[in-house]
UniProtKB/TrEMBL annotation:
PANTHER family in UniProt: GLYCOSYLTRANSFERASE (PTHR22916), UDP-GLCNAC:BETAGAL BETA-1,3-N-ACETYLGLUCOSAMINYLTRANSFERASE-LIKE PROTEIN 1 (PTHR22916:SF3)
Keywords carried by this UniProt record: Transferase
CDD domains: Glyco_tranf_GTA_type (cd00761)
Matching Pfam families: Glycos_transf_2
Domain of life: Bacteria
Name by which UniProt lists this protein: Transferase
Lineage: Bacteria, Bacillati, Actinomycetota, Actinomycetes, Kitasatosporales
SUPFAM superfamilies linked: Nucleotide-diphospho-sugar transferases
Domain Glycosyltransferase 2-like: 10-174
GO molecular function: transferase activity
Amino acid sequence: MNSSNLPTVSVVVIAYNDAGLVGEAVSSALAQGPVVTEVIAVDDASSDGTARVLDELASLHPRLKVVHRTENSGGCGTPRNDGIAAASGRYVLFLDSDDILPPGAADALVRTAERHSAPVTVGAAVRRELPQRHDVPWMPGLYTPGDVIERPADRPELVRDTLCVNKLYERAFLQEHGLRFPDGRFVYEDFVFTSRVLAAAPRIAVTGDLVYVWHVRRSAAQVSISLDRKDVGNWRSRIEAHRTAARTLAAASPVLGSACQVKFLEYDLPMYLRELGRDPDYQAAWWTLTREYLDTFAEADVEAAEARARWIVRVLRATATPPADVERLTRLAAQPPRLLPPYAVGAAGEPVWSEELPVELDGLPALPVEDLPVTVDAEPAGRGAVRIRVHDLYGRLAGAGPQTARLSFMPRAGGEPVLARPVELVPDQGGGWTAVLPFRLADLAVTGRRRGLRRMQAWNVGVGVQCADGSSVFTSLRPRGRLLRRRALPSSRYGVLLAQPYRTGAGALALRLAPGAEGALDLVRNRLHRARAARGAG
């Protein structure tokens, strides 16, 4: 069956004040070929020229239909619902105005839907970090290409995929079940719509093709809702969306309802916790809001979550206000997770959070070594080396027998890590292990250039620990002492190589390298941009 014989698709594009980007989104939908019978662009009463851009495109492309709303809805749900109402194709596909559909997306989705008679078809999606164009797969491993899921309750982990844009929906299925988005100023409307779809128990087919490119512009003047987490109102909106979704799923299937609760504890909660920041007013408001919501969770759902999520929940429940060591909690929520010292024990010798909050860290003795939230400190040891100290964790790492450690430099723009040579670890008197790990920044800069990293290079710095029993653990480094001092190094290749170690928002060591004058200028621009962003956030 060629594309001209496939059932037709209506692509619904929603836009609000996005005149500079909506044209690319619409063009990517029109470029899908004859399988897309119409592109319905819904302008949510924009004030920046978006309507004019869409009307000009519609005058050139008969398949483009423009719906002009006279009042802004305040959210994404209402314009999507308008698009569904205007659609005439057999299938409906959603697209946001700042994203794109990759070539062949609609064709791949329809072929899979028809092959398996599936009312819902899902494909691969990526978050593309711009301007670096670094692609991060969305929910890798959740779906198996070619799979057909007869009922969502058979795969409760599907509740973790809350996107609506990486899926094709049969319009008759949406109509039969009255499936629509929440109207008006409802943030995270995807959560609710997706829960309603899963509650309707459709057959779901899976294609391995890339069907959606989600553009992430962290430096944009107005960041997307999912990235705008500096206001506690965003967290309140996410909680309300999750609460609505969980109730919808629980009413249809207790299994799906429970899976939705566990997903919140393992995914949403750590994501916001690790960005808690240092503002005491924000911390207090966030803490109160979160504790109130966690008090509504059944203990069985807490028990079903992974160990780290259980510990976080129980610390939150144990105190009405953020504790003095709240930073330890944010570091435990990071990726990879790290439990910072000190390590306290309870009356029976069991591992607990702290002497002040003796919350048991249940399940820690049974965690695989690779899942241990190990902390590794790093401090300078001369111009070309760092001294690390690997902390033990209630004897768990000692039991595995740490032998060697080696640095790993991972490009923040994506790609394979650059590995240094392994160095033997030496036990110290404090019950941990130390080593001096050498590295050559000039060689790292050359490797970055060969991989296409021009001007300023940004690297995450991690460490892998290999143990005598064959196990290993990988984590980030906690910078200590004077490690974060900026340095200018002479370079025969570049003239000068600027090195700026820094601490990420998660408290981990990262590195900016600026080879030559061009790289140094880029580094200065980067610092100025971050300074302006910090002033804007304040």
